[in-house]
């Protein structure tokens, strides 16, 4: 890991690597000093055990990640928004070695005074990576011992710790970067938690490999607060935030330079996709799992299409068995932490990982379409199969609806987290999508919440938890 950082220091040491929202830009040279300071502090801990730390999504999280990776340690960041019980559950599983570093001095060393026209930041200039976007990791070596433990989103069960080698993480980031190149002149604003796989790879990893400038915050509030001072060209987010931003004046929230909007966790509604296209922003959708690095598929700036997640990125072997996707390759996790039996159920003896997702090739484009989870398929009495995820995404594309849940009890039931005034629109959509059966429609009295574990960190529905909470049983 240090080799990559050292290359940036040698090539563009005075250029902006990070943005401190108080002090301003931090050069690659200064970042190197900060990482060395952290290395000296972290080296006193037992590197053979997971190094657990709370991750509020700030610059310290970036420095800690680079330092532990450089030491060949096992980093275990915990989302700072976790409730006390869930946090303690994870700490207990990981063995309890929790550490906290004091804020690492971030006053920048001299940064080149040349300013970016719109952001006030010095971009990184010509990069050794810029011209060969498919060969980011070929000239550097990594510690073979380094690992990161991230947690599954818990969509279908309790979140589980996933062990990923740093070499696999960087290879996955390089594959994403090959599909969606970014330049050292780009400014990336991270608003998703770096303690989760999507931002860890597609924000932190692609930043490190490309040598662009990175600003770190958390959530929509952070984006709205700091966007105007950063003027990013690249952002990754989730569908609900992408929709919310369509109601904002992009100039006012600092997104006038935005050119690529990555959207993960769920599909963006086609109407929202089209609205972003009209604003000359390309929406990049992809697909993957925490267990796969996470990127399995990614659209490119040239083929981005509503409802599709692109083709497989470099490094994957794939099979589709009875509609379900299986993958094999160097990006696959080492396994679930301290859960060999669970790992064996996920990855067979030949190395094939069962994704649990039903997919279909879009014949004209060759891209993948995600239909839903294998275990969630509802089989009606007449034998017709219904994919709840596909129906829910269509419903959630309607204005005024935050979340939808389709389940089978005595009959098909569609439950809505949103404005009851949307009922006529929902009924019309159901006549189109599910005309072959009756569907009862209800509205949750209380919104689904993170606090009740009903939503993932990506604000997608934890189906089994919602059913258990709201209906008193699980499926």
From TrEMBL:
InterPro entries: AMP-dep_synth/lig_dom, ANL_N_sf
UniProt-recorded name of the protein: Long-chain-fatty-acid--CoA ligase
EC number(s) stated in the UniProt entry for this protein: 6.2.1.3
Family matches, as SUPFAM superfamilies: Acetyl-CoA synthetase-like
Residue numbers spanned by region Disordered: 105-124
Top enzyme category: ligase
Domain AMP-dependent synthetase/ligase: 6-337
Assigned keywords, A-Z: Ligase
MF (Gene Ontology): long-chain fatty acid-CoA ligase activity; medium-chain fatty acid-CoA ligase activity
Residue stretches spanning the membrane: none
Family: Belongs to the ATP-dependent AMP-binding enzyme family.
Pfam families linked: AMP-binding (PF00501)
């Amino acid at each position: 890991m240090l080799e990559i950082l050292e290359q940036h220091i040698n090539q563009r040491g005075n250029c902006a690597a990070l943005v401190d929202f108080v002090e301003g830009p931090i050069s690659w040279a200064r970042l190197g000093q900060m990482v060395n300071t952290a290395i000296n502090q972290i080296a006193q801990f037992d590197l053979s055990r997971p190094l657990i730390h709370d991750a509020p999504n700030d610059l310290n999280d970036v420095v800690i990640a680079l330092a532990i990776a450089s030491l060949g340690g096992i980093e275990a960041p915990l989302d700072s928004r976790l409730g006390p019980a869930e946090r303690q559950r994870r700490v207990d599983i990981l063995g309890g070695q929790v550490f906290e570093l004091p804020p690492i001095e971030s006053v920048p060393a001299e940064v080149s005074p040349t300013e970016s026209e719109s952001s006030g930041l010095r971009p990184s200039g010509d990069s050794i990576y810029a011209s060969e976007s498919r060969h980011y990791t070929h000239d550097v070596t990594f510690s073979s011992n380094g690992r990161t433990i991230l947690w599954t989103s818990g969509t279908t069960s309790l979140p589980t710790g996933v062990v990923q080698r740093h070499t696999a993480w960087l290879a996955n980031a390089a594959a994403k970067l090959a599909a969606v190149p970014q330049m050292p002149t780009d400014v990336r604003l991270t608003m998703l938690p770096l303690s989760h796989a999507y931002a860890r790879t597609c924000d932190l990893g692609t930043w490190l490999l490309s040598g662009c400038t990175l600003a770190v915050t958390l959530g929509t509030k952070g984006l709205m607060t700091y966007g105007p001072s950063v003027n990013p060209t690249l952002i990754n987010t989730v569908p609900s935030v992408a929709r919310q931003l369509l109601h904002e004046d992009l100039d006012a929230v600092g997104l006038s330079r935005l050119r690529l909007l990555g959207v993960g966790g769920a599909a963006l509604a086609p109407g929202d996709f089209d609205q972003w296209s009209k604003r000359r922003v390309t929406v990049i959708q992809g697909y993957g799992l925490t267990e796969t690095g996470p990127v399995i598929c990614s659209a490119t700036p040239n083929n981005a299409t509503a409802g599709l997640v692109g083709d497989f990125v470099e490094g994957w072997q794939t099979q589709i068995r009875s509609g379900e996707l299986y993958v094999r390759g160097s990006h696959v996790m080492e396994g679930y932490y301290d859960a060999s039996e669970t790992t064996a159920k996920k990855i067979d003896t030949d190395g094939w990982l069962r994704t649990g997702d039903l997919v279909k090739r879009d014949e004209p484009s060759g891209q993948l379409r995600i239909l839903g989870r294998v275990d969630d398929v509802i089989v009606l009495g007449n034998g017709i199969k219904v994919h709840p995820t596909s129906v829910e995404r269509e419903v959630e594309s309607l204005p005024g609806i935050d979340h939808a849940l389709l389940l089978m009890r005595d009959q098909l039931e569609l439950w809505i987290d949103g404005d009851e005034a949307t009922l006529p629109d929902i009924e019309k959509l159901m006549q189109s999508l599910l005309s072959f059966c009756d569907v009862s429609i209800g509205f949750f009295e209380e919104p689904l919440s993170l606090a009740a574990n009903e939503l993932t960190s990506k604000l997608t529905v934890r189906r089994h938890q919602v059913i258990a909470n709201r209906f008193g049983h699980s499926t």
